[in-house]
Amino acid sequence: MTTEQNLRAKRFSGWAGVAGVFIAMGATELFAGMTDDVPSAISAIGTYVIDISPAWLKTFAISAFGTADKAVLAIGIFLVAVIIGWFLGKASVATPWPIIAGFAIAGIVGVAAQLTQPNVSGLLAAISTTVAMGLGISTWFGIKTWAGGGTSRDITDNDVTDMSRRRLIVGLAGVAIVTAVAINIGRGKIRGRADAQLAALILPEPVEIQLDPTAANDFDLAGVPPIVVGSATFYRIDTALVVPTIDPEEWTLTIKGMVDEEIVLTYDQIASMPLVERYVTLACVSNEVGDNLVGNALWTGVFLRDLLDMAGVQDGAQQVVGRSIDGFTVGFPIDAALDDRDALVAIGMNREVLPANHGFPARLVVPGLYGYVSATKWLTEIELTTWDSFDGYWIPRGWSKEAPIKTQSRIDRPRNRAKVEAGSYTLGGVAWAPTKGVERVEVQINGGPWALAEITDPLSENAWVQWKLDSELPAGKHVISVRATDGTGFTQTEPNVSPRPDGAEGWHTIEVTAEEVEQ
Fold first, then answer.
1. Do residue 32 and residue 169 come from a single domain?
2. Closest C-alpha to 150, from 458, 222, 68, 161
3. pTM of the predicted model, to two decimals?
4. What domain range includes position 301?
5. 30 shares its domain with 71
6. CA distances from 319 to 107, 238, 307, 322, 370 (A)
7. 401 falls within a domain
């Protein structure tokens, strides 16, 4: 066989290897959708990748991709697998052992990652993954043989004909369709189970109901987010590649550690307790100045302090540790659980059962603390311990252990580098300082004097406010800055400080162009 024929044969076998990877990955997702006992191998591997990734890489991913970081990771895992399949296929042009070994190793890694997930059947995971890897190998062999017009060895002895190429293209297209269908069915079944469970639940009526926002609370200004952000558009940052599906009838919350009596509560028990509503703004510590990883919602739940009282807080307890079903952990001072900020174990969001992607069945909502030390989604355990005996998930990765939310403000109207009509223009945005409240917001245009903006009546001390300012913007470029002063008298300072290690600081500043409109 000539050198050119050999190169063609390797490329041909490489594409067959890619097809094998497609089918194997689609099969794992399909099997995950067929039973609760087998988690997605792709998701399990992705979760492991997240856990072992260095802190700087995670920070970059959140900063660069925001709430799309998990989709980017999933695509990355898929591309890496495809590349590996390509090279294994090329290496297997004369003998199948390289690709067989590659799929075997991938299967072992997949099962090992699955076993780190909760409520997994090791036997079913091993069987389903073995079948998926076998399908991948069979696909490689089948595509290579069928498109080559003979046995797997014929491809090494004959040139790749036009018919072979057409067969290869048809085969790859068919594999892509089958893979897409398998993944959609698998993910659809997973979502369907979760949706059915949520749809069957009704959020009980709270004993303390907050008033709905009025015109005094919400300017309803175009470009400025609503004072209460809808559950579907509320930002999501967490370490779960795929949202956990949890059966509320099997879920429990354990409170243990430095307590007089360890208690285990079911979903029904928590839902039957006196529920309260609270408006609380949550913020991600990775939020850059002016970014959108922050939002305000109406949360329904039970006071965390009441649950801790049920267990009995022992002297010397200093830290509340929250554990998620996906292994994520947080830790915050116990004072934040017991004081009048009204920390919640929430089971509702915006008067609906807590959505799966925001933590169903229950999550922690602790006003005034960044989410990475407090906002445990898919909560399954609370432990009381000392301050030095435990560090939450992000602390060994270089983030501060104490993480009060910093006073911040943002310009939402207009957007940075926007073009607006010259003349009268209403600037607008939001400002937040949970547990402290926003006292005032000021706006500066082109380095001039600070002008006092109008702010909405706060829904609570823990909720953000909107601000607006009627201004005149003559034709040309304009630099606009905003700063907020909180209830303690602290006013934001100008220097821009990056989020790491304990939150961003600085004035949000934008540049816009005002243009004359021809009549």
1. yes
2. 161
3. 0.79
4. 252-385
5. yes
6. 40, 21, 15, 10, 15
7. no
